Amino acid sequence: MATQTEAPAQETFHLINSPADAINEALTGLTEHHPYLSYAPTHKIVYRSDLEDFRNSHVTTIGCSGGGHEPMFSGFVGHNFLSAYVSGNVFASPTARQMFEAIKMCQPDPWTAKSSPGTLLVVGNYTGDILNAGLAITRATAAGYNVRFVPVGDDVAVGRKKGGKVGRRGLSGHLVALKCACALAQQGKGLDRVAEVMEYVAANVGTIGVAFDRVALPNGILTDLQSLPPGTIELGMGAHGEPGLQQISPIPSLEELTRNMMKLLIDTSDVDRAFIPLSSNKGEDEAVLLLNSLGSTSDEVLAKFAQLGVEHLQSQGLPVRRLTFGPLVTSLKMSGFGFTLWRLPSSSGKEVLSREEALALWDEPAHVVAWRQ
Fold it and tell me: With left for phi above 0 and alpha for psi between -120 and 50, is residue 317 left, alpha or beta?
């Protein structure tokens, strides 16, 4: 691992009224602008406005995360996507109480309803989110609610040796798996099937990111910004500024950077990071590719990397069947982006989903704020 160096601190500003109110104000504005969304400010829960009716006949899905990653998950609440989103403060997990309140909103009262389709609760693989979700689900189960839980970790920068029992960090892989699971929930499928597909897709997804600078927490209007050294980028930096895999200087060409990032995703000989179960036979697999802006990276930049990513995968015998890009899981206004790769089901038809079913779920139109179909 390359030696990591620090540049002198600089200052940056945040166009907010108060750090304590920033998330509530943002979510209030979002739901005022979109009538199909509603907001419960006490517990920072964004939910589809038809939830009271929807929950009676459909499995509901909840995404939970800290704030500062918008549009995840507030921008993905609505038809064919999430039923509700629970937000913590900036880069902080929502509490167990918040999650429990969301579960109660997403199911009929178990003491008065004959039955409930149940709820799938999804978080990224971070300690606070896992602990608080466990407490919330324990309390919900004791109260009679039916809940399944799927944590998602997709960051290939965290190898098996480093991840140990904790596993990989959650990045944008949630969205790929949720796109399919939530479409099934909208179709009226049962909780077991929705959770099964969520787990299956998440197990076939990997993400690698690169940061062009560090993130600054909005703990004031004007804050220090620890920047990378001049002419340096950091491969594998986490969504909260966690140390990455390697600092690279001088900055490589776009083509070289793409090759390096793709190798971390698709190199099956790398036993520490070969998380995506790709076939050893070229031409057997197909993929969905997602490019995510970490906050301030433009569509223009993403589009070029999308072109390079598709071309590289094609040259490796891995054609891309679907592509999307944009700001999906950000890190406030960090400069950088990530590739997320989903290996589609094999053509054998012997997996949890067939390839045709997987693509059909991906193609289901989502009536939400931030998804780019």
Answer: left
Task: Say how far apart CA 24 and CA 44 lie, in whole Å.
Answer: 7
Closest CA to 232 of 215, 210, 258, 208: 210
The strand ranges marked E within the chain are 9-13, 37-40, 45-48, 60-67, 84-90, 119-124, 147-152, 205-211, 222-226, 233-235, 246-248, 287-293, 320-326, 336-343
Task: For the chain, give percent helix, strand, coil, nearest 5.
Answer: 30, 25, 45
Give residues with Cβ within 8 angstroms of 373, minimum separation 6: 324, 363, 365, 366
Select from 174, 81, 69 the least CA-distant residue to 125: 174
Marked catalytic residue, from 34, 43, 174, 240: 240
- 58 catalytic, yes or no? no
- The two tokens of residue 78 are 């609505």
Cβ(329)–Cβ(175) under 8 Å?
A: yes
Say which DSSP state 227 is in.
P
Asked if the bond preceding 250 is cis, omega within 30° of 0, the reply is yes
- Between CA 203 and CA 177 the distance in angstroms is 9
Confidence (pTM): 0.94
What whole-number distance in Å separates Cα of residue 2 and Cα of residue 246?
5
Q: 169 and 155 in contact (C-beta within 8 Å)?
A: yes
- Position 122: which residue type? V
User: Among 329, 365, 290, which residue's Cα sits nearest to residue 78?
Assistant: 365
Q: What is the DSSP string of 220-280?
A: SSEEEEEPPPTT-EEET--TTS---SEEESSPPPHHHHHHHHHHHHH-TT-TTT--S---S
Q: Is the pLDDT of residue 36 over 50?
A: yes
Please measure the distance between the N-terminal and C-terminal CA atoms of the chain and give it in whole angstroms.
38
Q: Is the pLDDT of residue 1 over 50?
A: no
Q: What is the DSSP letter of 162?
A: H
Predicted confidence band at 235 (pLDDT cuts at 50, 70, 90)?
Answer: very high
- In single-letter form, the type of residue at position 332 comes to L
* Overall average pLDDT of the 38-65 stretch: 98
Whole-angstrom distance, CA of residue 333 vs CA of residue 226:
13
Give me the count of residues in the chain: 373
* Residue 209, helix vs strand vs coil: strand
